[in-house]
Amino acid sequence: MPGCCHYERDSQSPSAEAHQHHAKKDNEFYVKGNCASCKARIEKAAKTAGADSAEWSAEKQTVTLKFDASKTSSDKVLKAIADAGHDNEKYKTTDAVYKNLPGCCLYDRDIPFGEANPDVHFEEEAKHDDHKEHQQATHTEDHKPSEKSIEGVTITGSKAATALSKKEAGLVFNIDKKELLKAACCNLSESFETNATVDVSFSNAVTGTKQLKMLGLDQKYTSLTKELLPEIRGLASAYGLNFIPGRWIESIQLTKGGSTVTNGYESITGQINTELLKNAKEPETSLNIFADFNGRAEANITSVSPINDKWSQTFLLHGNGTFGDTDMNDDTFLDRPKGTQINAAYLLNYNDLEKSGFGSHFGINFLRDERTAGQIGFDKKIPQDKQGAYGVGIDISRFQVWNKTGYVFKGKPYQSLGWMNQYVYHQQDSFFGLRNYAGKQHTYYSNLIFESIIGNTNHKYKAGASFLYDGYEETYLMDDMKRNEIVPGIFAEYTLTGLKYTLVAGARADFHNLAGTQFTPRVNFKYDFTPQTILRLSAGRGFRTANVFAENQQYFASNRSIQILQNGGNIYGLRPEIAWNYGASLQQEFKLFGRKSSIVADFFRTDFQDQVLVDLDRSPQQLTFYNLEGKSFANSFQTQWDFTPFKNFDVRLAYKYYDVQADYIDGRREVPFMAKHRGFVNLAYATNKNDKGGFWSFDTTLNWVGKQRLPETSSNPAEFQLPVYSESYAVLNAQISRNFNKKIRAYLGGENLTSYYQKNAIVDFRNPFGNYFDGGMVYAPIMKANFYVGLDVTF
User: Fold this and answer.
1) Whether 330 and 280 share a structural domain
2) Are residues 157 and 216 in the same domain?
3) pTM for this structure?
4) Basic and acidic residues compositional bias: what residue ranges (predicted)?
5) Helix-helix angle 36-48:74-83, to 10 degrees
6) Are residues 217 and 159 in the same domain?
7) Under DSSP, is residue 631 helix (H, G, I), strand (E, B) or coil?
8) Does residue 463 contact residue 491 with C-beta atoms inside 8 Å?
9) Do 42 and 139 belong together in one domain?
10) Residue pair 662/634 in contact by the 8 Å Cβ criterion
11) Do residues 258 and 606 make contact, with C-beta atoms less than 8 angstroms apart?
12) Tens of pLDDT, residues 684-731
């Protein structure tokens, strides 16, 4: 089934033994393999050798045999399986037979029997009766692989909390719950603090908003999806990262560079997809309670349970509140907003693939978020023009409903049809001092995908059609702006799998009523020099329409006037943004200290054909938007080294270099708030588990950020001028957690333990209604060290 319609199938219940060797039954034997082609080959060889039945499990790397001992034996069956190309606990296949296996079937021969294969991969032809094995999520700290799919997806079964798939043509990182538990992952914006690929920073000193950046470019150029459906975009751009609670997340798939055309046209720098908690074989309810020393508290309840052998359901509930007045830099402004959020979701899954070939996933989500920021003493109940204190109020309501349904053709496990639909309503009412901004967004999205093969499973294709409707109503000051974006589209994608290479080439055409017809080609190529040395190349085009007000709310808490230099386009008078992204990466695995180690180096370049530039330099009292005339580019280089010097101790080191420049009206300049140099260190250690499953975990992350160009303020009075470049700084986070058993976990952590903060984060904070007031000039943390505690209980 197409990826748009993947859903959970018989996921495992949590288990502290997830990383221990599998306890085999008498009729169960270790057999190595990778994918559904392996499964078919293993089971066929076993039956040819006389077995009455054979069931191979990718998760366990075992085959379960049933046979008449008077007719055959396990020894004979395992010999036949080895002759077919699969190492097992009694026999090893020859090098010649192994090398002649299809590229997707080349399993890692170095992994000891009984340990999980970190790159078990289900190709798209795998949509057959193996309803127990299709999986997408990674192992978690106390969780077996649990996110199962009927699309070609990856099982990352190693102990690593973040894994780079060796099988994907693109550069795809799978992040599981174990990684998210290393830090105070209260929502999606805090899910990448231990990840070197994504940069997370505050974008505003008044609202405390966090934003992500990838490949040196703002969050808006990354496709942010939930369940492979469009999620954080449009009016949700500024605050949407806060709308996905960390405890709801089962896994995250992070793709650098151009992603598949089947997921749409907006991805330019990559895609971040979040999968929510879904099925479990046994009912499981979890409670999480969190509080920090600066007045933030939250609670999460998640409940996952089967209804019967075909139906299962998930209840997700989240509530948080920020109370008290936090002002660490004594500028009379709150360092983060006060307010509350209530967030609830219900998921329903149906799976009858074996009998009818049908499966379906339904979800509904409602959110209400209210925030107040600004000067201490501001009263939201009193109109802003009736009081002297500067205030900010942000009230958001959001409703979503979605469905994904798929059908696998009987007798053709490689052929499927999937259809996904989603409706989103988003409303924001807000004010920033004497300025008001309000918006409503109605979005309907539909995607239909058919996939099959051409001749054999080395030649696969997907084809389909999509439809997107965005209805916007915005008010800024006295201006009312309305528009409807209607975008039907068609696409096709071809995958060629060879012995050592994989090629994925696709293209789509979208017929945008305001931006015109757009053609989006993308290609990803992977070549395995050896199983440990992998080269990847990618190139692709993406386009998007800029929501200049919603995406730049971090500058609303200032007295900059907004100017749009219209250029004949149909969206705020501006043309759409169009960019090409090119990438190359080299992945090398080797043994260090007798343990697996890996180094990944990648380079990506993004070239804009057209871009809506956000110009903060023309005047410190002005925010100007206009289309690019000239060049705009971003060069991104990253190298990352993961290794385990000794048992239970993981080390991740990374360095990043960015060169991001654009031709503004008055010449080419570096894009502001982007450090050229960044360093990253993550250390994780866990003690051995005791008899009750208890253990300690210790995690620490150091981020070093080099100097950043700051917007031009030389025309301000001297006391309100910023330096040309910021200082470099380092931020240290750490956490200690204790798993008392399989059910109870407590944790204590600290953020920004170096206590580095931007002392003058707000320009002219004493006169917030004056000409020079500006809360958007943020390049560093705005809060000193903060500590938190939490408790997880599973029932």
Assistant:
1) yes
2) no
3) 0.84
4) 1-11
5) 130
6) no
7) coil
8) yes
9) yes
10) no
11) no
12) 999 999 988 899 999 999 999 999 999 999 999 999 999 999 999 999
